[in-house]
Amino acid sequence: MLRVWIGLICGVATWVAAQEFQLHEIVAGLAQPVDIASARDGSGRLFVVEQAGRVRVIVGTNLLATAFLDITGQTLFSGEQGLLGLAFHPGYRTNGHFFVYVTNANGSSNVVWRYTATPPSTNVVNPASGVEIIRIAHPVEANHNGGGIQFGPDGYLYFAPGAGGGACDLNNNSQALGTLLGKMVRIDVDSAVPYAVPPDNPFAGVAGARPEIWATGLRNPFRFSFDRDTGDLFIADVGQDAQEEVNYQPAGSPGGQNYGWKCMEGVLSNTCATTCATAAMTRPIITYDHVAPGPCWSITGGYRYRGSRIPPLAGRYFFADYCSSRIWAATEAAGVWTVGTPLDFADFGISTFGEDECGELYVAHRGNGRIYQIVAKDSDADGLPDWFEQLYPGEPGDDLDGDGFTHRQEFLAGTHPLNALSALRITAITASNLTFTTSAGRQYIVETRPDIATGQWQPHTNIVCAAAGETTVSIETAGFYRVRLQR
Ligand SMILES: [Ca+2]
Ligand SMILES: [Ca+2]
Ligand SMILES: [Ca+2]
Q: Which of 44, 100, 209, 278 could form a disulfide with 203 if both were Cys (CB 3.0 to 4.6 A apart)?
């Protein structure tokens, strides 16, 4: 608690007690997981980066034995170096392109590679499909490689090399416009191979500046994310010895922000004995202090929660600390961020967050090799979260609205437990179509079999992330059909 109170005194955000979530283990058995991504291709798969140079696939709660991509032979895995980031192209469903950020085999550079999954539904990619997109020399120190990589709502690829390492950024890379070290970078990977510079990049055409730069003044932005609803950008930047920070950039920004390092560390301007003019630099929205006897301090940036399964957490920004293994959820009101009481994992190693197709959030633990889903807190462990029990009294097996679905089933389905008209039900069947009700963010599987007495149910249509309302699927082949809620 001491650390939280220090944050209250020194941080720009306020910190209050309101921890409404817990972790639910999805899979175990990964080796040093450091990133989680979804292809948003309708498959429902989660992809996990192993730092040594593999991408693994999770289908439901199954970790597939064979790697999606294995580039261990061209990856230096050591300390902060390795395969650090993964981003799927917005058109992955048709082009199969995805991008990785990786330390090359001799450690001299970090490289963005494009790979192609053929077909996009495959669970094993040929490493020979790789095309080098851009190489950022990282010649002096082994640390501060950055590694975040994401597509923005504008369709451009953003990635964030670290400042290059060393105490107090000895070469002042973060403030130098002639290098990509210590920057947010924005490139167009569709108009040219390997890439083109978006014409509206803030330093395009500026003498002496790398035109790929989108924002400056970053130290080790290992994780950043775009809000999938608004397009706002959140950049978590790892601090040195004093403060961790989250930076914010509203959607539609022209770029060019200077986030301060090494003139500023968080909201502090005296940690590297600099004499910068800091007035125009962009302050973080959230900071927290390094306080003894913390083992070390290193922020792991996350996502704004835009899923549908935990309504009380809508819009919260989740982040963690790698070393202290605390996980926080922050709320914004009128531009002021309030940080809730952390979930204390109490075991060094929360390395990344990830978002699935429906906006549900996951965390990876680099130390124990497990992936957890962030779920609503369920204090009595009866399968109904606290928020649901407060709204809808009753036991998990009750059917208060008499629609044939229990409280527990209605919670899972996202239907209303006090409204008998709110339930998973088929509403229309014709010779060629089947229509059924759906809740936002739920996954439904339509299955078929030719004869009700023999054979097995076979998948017909998989709707990974349904909208609220009704969904119609084609059932032109004669047979029996059923609709099943997957999750
Ligand atoms: Ca409960
Ligand atoms: Ca019911
Ligand atoms: Ca109902």
A: 209
Residues 311 and 428 in one domain: no
Residues with Cβ < 8 Å from 455, sequence gap 6 or more?
A: 449
- Which ligand is closest to the CA of 375, given by its number? 1
CA distances from 89 to 50, 74, 129, 212, 473 (A): 20, 22, 15, 19, 27
* Distance of CA 143 from the midpoint of ligand 3 (Å): 54
Question: Under DSSP, is residue 306 helix (H, G, I), strand (E, B) or coil?
Answer: coil
Distance (Å) from CA 391 to ligand 2 centroid: 14
Q: Taking the complete model, does pTM exceed 0.85, yes or no?
A: yes
Which residues span the domain enclosing 465? 424-487
Contact indicator for 182, 161 with CB cutoff of 8 Å: yes
How does pLDDT run across 302-332, given as a tens digit for each residue?
999 999 999 999 999 999 999 988 999 999 9
Using alpha carbons, select from 194, 260, 185, 166 the residue that is nearest to residue 224: 185
pLDDT tens for each residue of 226-275: 999 999 999 999 999 999 999 999 999 999 999 999 999 999 998 998 88
Listed in sequence order, the residues at least 6 apart from 212 whose beta carbon sits closer than 8 Å to its beta carbon are 134, 180, 183, 185, 186, 187, 197, 201
CATH code, 432 = 2.60.40
Looking at the structure, tell me whether residues 346 and 411 fall in a common domain: no
How many domains are there within the chain?
Answer: 3
Say how many Å lie between the CA of residue 384 and the centre of ligand 1: 4
